[in-house]
Amino acid sequence: MVEPFDTVKGVKRVISGYTGGHVANPTYQEVCSGTTGHTEAVEITYDPNEISYEELLNYYWQVTDPTDAMGQFQDRGDNYRPVIFYNSDEQKLAAEKSKQELEESGKFDQPIVTKIEPAAPFYPAEEYHQDFYKKDPLRYAMEEAGGRAQFIKKHWQK
């Protein structure tokens, strides 16, 4: 999720990390074990004068599979579940509204399963996870292409 948001005008910083669990400062290995309760997430810092929270939400729906409760594209497991974490009542209402609009749009033939949850402590991932798409572009491209192809086949080739 870093690369899609990293290229959006108004987004100032995107940090990979973990949130929503019960262990302080988890490692990647601990999160992947499924024992910490964390979700892999990104923390997005943006300039509201350049892009609104609602615009970020609309973009989120375009770059995720909101119908897959057990992962995103090639990343599988509960720690990859789709979640929008909010920091205020206004963000919660905006997220719920955008989800409802997506559900009512009929764009997907399966239920929207993305959760909307209050933000919990966020722990940045290890340095080797930050900007992975820049550090290993070939591997990133191959993984993304495979995951996106599965998404297209699942939703658009009927």
Automatic annotation (TrEMBL):
<comment type="function">
    <text>Has an important function as a repair enzyme for proteins that have been inactivated by oxidation. Catalyzes the reversible oxidation-reduction of methionine sulfoxide in proteins to methionine.</text>
</comment>
<dbReference type="InterPro" id="IPR002569">
    <property type="entry name" value="Met_Sox_Rdtase_MsrA_dom"/>
</dbReference>
<protein>
    <recommendedName>
        <fullName>Peptide methionine sulfoxide reductase MsrA</fullName>
        <ecNumber>1.8.4.11</ecNumber>
    </recommendedName>
</protein>
<comment type="similarity">
    <text>Belongs to the MsrA Met sulfoxide reductase family.</text>
</comment>
<keyword id="KW-0560">Oxidoreductase</keyword>
<dbReference type="InterPro" id="IPR036509">
    <property type="entry name" value="Met_Sox_Rdtase_MsrA_sf"/>
</dbReference>
<feature type="domain" description="Peptide methionine sulphoxide reductase MsrA">
    <location>
        <begin position="3"/>
        <end position="141"/>
    </location>
</feature>
<dbReference type="Pfam" id="PF01625">
    <property type="entry name" value="PMSR"/>
</dbReference>
